[in-house]
Amino acid sequence: MFESILRTVLIASVATAGASASLTTTTEASAAPVQTASVRLRDINEQLVPSKLVRGDREFGGNGPSVRCEVTLSVTADQRAILAAVNFRAKETKADWSETEGSWSREVYRAPAGRKIDGIVDGSSSVVQFVSKPAGFQLLAPSEDWVKVLQGLQKVHEALLMFAAPGAPPAHTAAQRQMKQLSDKVIQGAAYLTGQGNHVHLRAPTSGPVQLIGIVGDTGGPDISTDDNPKDDTRVVGIKFKPIKIRLK
To answer: Tens of pLDDT along 192-245?
Structure first.
């Protein structure tokens, strides 16, 4: 009798163990493999112009403004793309404290066919904050060449990649020394491009996915726009991203 009961228990134990092993194998086999990959994000080369008047009038009058711009990456609900949320605020540093703000969302990466984004490995947020240089008097309307501004941003971006990295080789030629000086100025927050009274401040965030941001604060005319036209307005000029690491499955 006892042997019969023991035999039944042993058979049940073996059957249960086999079922458990089968379940584990099936679960492991169905789990999608995840790998880490370094990818390049799509730069934001369009000008982002805030038109919301939070308070005051539409003129900073050379009083700043104090500018804060944050760029945050997130994965879409379907895990197929990465979005960059840009939040911008500019506020006059004296009464009447004129202030504007704007928010935009742009797709900066899409996963290859058949893959999904499991997460972002690197830091997902970058912030710059500074007080704008006064634009000064402007007699004529701006004739800023946006293509030249983009080319300038690209040169600064390349200089940062070449010289700002730890262990970068020293600059020997005159051109290399000039690019090194430009890179140092960006890191110190002292670099800007000029176009008919508009100072495009170049800022390199200390962390996160952004390599470089170009921003216009004070301008030679009314600063806070009433439309989406970027000419002679407070605005985000462009955003350059670093390569980032993500998890793909």
So the answer is: 776 555 788 889 999 999 999 999 999 878 899 998 888 889 999 999 999 999
Q: Based on the fold, state whether residues 10 and 93 are members of the same structural domain.
A: no
pLDDT digits (tens, 9 = 90+) for 133-186: 887 655 444 445 556 666 777 778 778 777 766 777 777 888 778 778 878 888
Q: Indicate the residue type of 51.
A: S
Judge residue 230's burial from the number of C-beta atoms within 10 Å of its C-beta, 0-12 exposed, 13-18 middle, 19 or more buried.
buried
What is the C-alpha to C-alpha distance for residues 52 and 154, in angstroms, rounded to an integer? Answer: 29
Residue 73 and residue 137 in one domain: yes
Q: Are residues 92 and 177 in the same domain?
A: yes
- Helices (H) and strands (E) in the chain — how many of each? 3, 12
Q: Is 4 in the same domain as 101?
A: no
pTM: 0.77
Q: How does 5-34 read in b/e, with b if 16+ C-beta sit within 10 Å?
A: eeeeeeeeeeeeeeeeeeeeeeeeeeeeee
What are the tokens at 115?
A: 């893959």
Structure confidence at residue 27 (pLDDT): 41
All residues at 6 or more sequence positions from 247 whose CB lies less than 8 Å from its CB, including other chains:
34, 35, 36, 37, 117, 118, 119, 120, 121
**Same structural domain for residues 106 and 1?**
no
Residue range(s) defining the domain that contains residue 11: 1-31
For the four alpha carbons of 31, 81, 202 and 98, in that order, the dihedral sign comes to: negative
